[in-house]
Specification:
The protein is globular, with a radius of gyration of 22 Å. It is 40% helix and 15% strand. A hairpin with a 5-residue loop joins strand 10 (328-337) and strand 11 (343-348). 40% of the residues are buried. Strands 1, 4, 5, 6, 7, 8, 9, 10, 11, 12 and 13 form an eleven-stranded mixed β-sheet that branches. A two-stranded antiparallel sheet has the order 2-3. It is built from 13 helices and 13 strands. It is of the alpha+beta class and 393 residues long.
C-alpha cells in the first residue's frame, strides 16, 4: 500500500509539472519508422503472443521484398495447443494449458506444420465474428485431465481433441489455392523464405550471467526457451539499432501498470517523488484529495513528464518482487520523440482499432520499456555486430 501511495504522489507531481510546462499534450515526431501490416484483433483470447509474432513475421516479409501477407494466427495457435497438450501430459499434468505462450511457440509451430493465409483458415467456426477461446480452453483442459487421470491417451482421446479444434477453429486444410497456385501448409511456409533460426530472443536480468543463455522464469515460457542475457543498455541498443535499420521488434512485457494506457496511446514510467519533496502548494492540494480524485488527476496523461531512471538494479527489483510480470506481447514498429526529446517506441497492439483513437497503436517511453520488458525477438541482422560477436551469433 505504501508503494502505491508514493507512486501516486509521483504521478500527481508529474502531471502538475507537465501541465504547467506544456498545455498542448504529447507531441511526437518520427525518428524511425518501419512498414508493417494492418492492426488485427485477438478479441477474447489470450493469444497476443501469436498476433504479435505473426505481425512481426508479416513485417519481415515486407522487409524482404516478399509483398504484403495476412497470415493465419489460428493455424499456429491450434498447433501450439497440441504442443501444450503433449508437454502437459508428459509432465503428468504439471504443465500449463493456458492460452498464453511466447514467440518460440510460433516458431516451433511454423517449423512443424507450416502456415496458411488468413483467408484459408480464420479460426472462427462458431457463431461469432470475433475470436473467443474461453469455452474451447475449458473443454481442452477437461479432455486433458481425463488422459492424465487414466495415465493413457487412447485413440478416442486424439479423436476428441481434433474434433474439438475442428468444431471451434475449423478443419485444417490439406491443400489450398492462393493467388492461383496450389499449396500445402508446409509448401506455403517454404515459399515465404522465413528461416526461424534467424530470429533471436534477447533478455536482460542480473540473476544470470551476461552473454549467456537462460530460460526466463515466467509461466508462459512453458517450452523453457533459452534466451540471450545481455546488459540492459545493450538490450535497448538492440531495439534502437534494429528499428533504425529497418527491422521491427517483437516485445514481451508488463502492461499491468497504471502508466500503461492503451486508451491514451502512451505507456509511461513517471518519476516517483515522496510527499515531503513536493512543493508546499502541490503537497497541500494533494493532501486534501480523496483517493479517487488523486487517481483521476494522476492519470490524465496530459503531457510528458520526468520519468524514472531505470538501472539494471531497478529493473531486477521489479522482476524479483513480482511487480514486473509477463502479461502481453506486442510489435515495436518505430521510434518517436516527444517535445522534450524523450524517446518512445511505436507499438502496434492486437486489440483492434476501436479501443483507442490511435488506430490500435501506442507509444511506450524508453523508461517504461527499460523497466517492463521481459524479452524481445529480433532478426539476427538487426543486432549490432559487436553484440553478435559477444554472443557468438
Amino acid at each position: 500500500m505504501k508503494a502505491k501511495f508514493l507512486t501516486l504522489v509521483g504521478l500527481l507531481s508529474c502531471a502538475t509539472l507537465s501541465a504547467q510546462e506544456n498545455k498542448s499534450g504529447y507531441q511526437f515526431k518520427d525518428v524511425a519508422k518501419v512498414n508493417v501490416t494492418s492492426v488485427k484483433n485477438q478479441a477474447s483470447t489470450g493469444t497476443c503472443w501469436c498476433f504479435a509474432t505473426t505481425s512481426f513475421m508479416e513485417a519481415e516479409l515486407l522487409r524482404m521484398g516478399k509483398g504484403e501477407y495476412d497470415l493465419s494466427e489460428m493455424f499456429i495457435v491450434r498447433q501450439k495447443y497440441m504442443n501444450q497438450l503433449q508437454d502437459n501430459y508428459i509432465r503428468r499434468g504439471r504443465g500449463t494449458l493456458g492460452q498464453g505462450s511466447l514467440t518460440n511457440a510460433w516458431k516451433n509451430a511454423f517449423n512443424e506444420v507450416g502456415i496458411v493465409p488468413e483467408e484459408v483458415y480464420d479460426g472462427i467456426n462458431y457463431d461469432s465474428d470475433k475470436h473467443n477461446h474461453r469455452e474451447l480452453n475449458q473443454y481442452l483442459k477437461a479432455i486433458a485431465d481425463v488422459a492424465i487421470k487414466n495415465k493413457n491417451r487412447s485413440p478416442e482421446y486424439y479423436k476428441l481433441i481434433n474434433s474439438l479444434f475442428d468444431t471451434y477453429l475449423g478443419e485444417l486444410p490439406a491443400k489450398f489455392t492462393y493467388n492461383g497456385k496450389e499449396y500445402t501448409p508446409k509448401s506455403f511456409a517454404a515459399s515465404l523464405g522465413l528461416n526461424m533460426d534467424d530470429y533471436i530472443e534477447i533478455t536482460s536480468f542480473t540473476h544470470h550471467p551476461y552473454y549467456q543463455q537462460f530460460a526466463p522464469e515466467v509461466p508462459d515460457n512453458w517450452e523453457r526457451k533459452l534466451m540471450y542475457n545481455v546488459p540492459l543498455d545493450e538490450m535497448i541498443g538492440v531495439l534502437n539499432h534494429a528499428l533504425a535499420n529497418g527491422y521491427t521488434v517483437c516485445w514481451d512485457g508488463d502492461v499491468s501498470e497504471k502508466g500503461f494506457s492503451h486508451k491514451n496511446g502512451v505507456a509511461i514510467n513517471p518519476e516517483v517523488k515522496k510527499l515531503e519533496d513536493m512543493s508546499g502548494t502541490d503537497r497541500a492540494r494533494f493532501e486534501k484529495m480523496d483517493e479517487k480524485a488523486r487517481l483521476e488527476e494522476a492519470y490524465k496523461f496530459a503531457a510528458p513528464c520526468p520519468e524514472v531512471n531505470v538501472t539494471p538494479e531497478v529493473r531486477q527489483a521489479g522482476y524479483e518482487s513480482f511487480v514486473t510480470t509477463d502479461d502481453h506481447l506486442m510489435h515495436l514498429t518505430g521510434i518517436v520523440q516527444d517535445q522534450n526529446g524523450t524517446v518512445y517506441y511505436v507499438t502496434k497492439n492486437s486489440w483492434g482499432t476501436e479501443r483507442n483513437t490511435f488506430g490500435g497503436y501506442l507509444n511506450m517511453s524508453e523508461s517504461y520499456v527499460r523497466a517492463k520488458t521481459i524479452y524481445i525477438l529480433v532478426h539476427k541482422d538487426g543486432i549490432p555486430k559487436d553484440l553478435k560477436k559477444k554472443l557468438g551469433i
